[in-house]
Amino acid sequence: MPTPYTEGNGLPADASFFSERRKSAAGPSLVLEAIRTYGALSRSDLAEITGLSRAAITKITSAMIAEKMLRETEQTDTGTSGRPVQPLEINDSYAYAAGIQMRDEYLEFVVIGFAGILRSQHTIDFEHTAHPDEVLPEIKEGLATVTRKAGLEVTDLVGVGLALPGMIDHQAGMVKFLPGYEAWRNYPIGPKLAGLLNIPVTVHWRVNAAAIAEMWWGQGKLARNFVYINIDNGVGMATIVDKRLWFGHEYAAGMLGHMPVPGCSRRCICGNRGCLMTLVSIPAHIHLVEEAYKEGVGSVLTRPLRVTEPHQITFTNLVAAAEAGDRLACNIFAEVAENLAVAIATVVHLLNPQLIVLGGQIVEASHLIADSLKKHVEDHLLGPEYQTVNIAFSELVPSAATVGGATLALDLRHDKFNE
Ligand SMILES: [Zn+2]
Predict the structure, then answer these.
(1) What is 221-393's CATH number?
(2) How far is CA 410 from CA 162, 190, 357, in A?
């Protein structure tokens, strides 16, 4: 049985959230948000959580049940009055959407239902130097495969959400700039793909898409304001303010990886020196191994590499070495945790978020860095009177950005109901 993305991080819910949301959100949105946050709820629980009257909840939920958006659970609870009540849950088969994440070497596809249940997954090879006109038919074919695996047709989907690795004008569905993807500059991928597939397409930066997945199904469910930091080949940050993404003036907010770090002189791929990503990205970890190798530091990693190429070490190797107690690997994770803590403390001082969620490949090392990261962050903060923050690691599998693309496409359907 597929698993819905419903595990939270144990944060207490922000009690003021629904009272604030009532000012701007329609009733069906509030009901969906409450059930996504807490799981199946009775009508009286919904009234209490959303602050809407019992009569209003009865009317709204009746319409949503008639629409097949909600359904009564099979399980019967005893209500406070002693009468049996049947909690309401989101009907996963009300709508399906696909998410597609573009990485340097592959495209990942998923189909999820309206309650976030993963229906299918598919991956194909991808050549990022290819012209996007050549990639569109591959996307169409991959999408046909992933929907078939879910027992659906592409036309059954309410939409497709693309999660791309760079600057996106999400309103126009236009790529502005993807680093290393020269042919994609100013390419209107959204309209072109929508024309090819004949269904709605939404396009976002993959870090923003991942943050949306965390907000709907993951660690950010109970947070009204949080920051998602993705650490892979680059380091990107998405900011959720009042449950909405902050895009920035030129859709370029969140370039945390290019934040200058005083005293650091390493050359970054952007051409500048001393960017944060040269200290904490996944390639930065490997670079530290290579430097140690040149200096002749002994390690389970460097020793066999005296006869091979140091760049063949993978992050997964490094994690395994640290788990085995290798001193070099442990020192590298300790150093990265210290540097990452400085960046997180800066973000916390600037934005005062309730929660920081870390995602991307760094999650493989969460058990190695979580404690020291939290301690170093606390050391840099002003103190509990001013700043406290929870730090959590993403638990979404497959990757949050792909699920986030599908979630953004589901949101198109969600909006439609609220018009
Ligand atoms: Zn840079």
Answers:
(1) 3.30.420.40
(2) 12, 16, 22
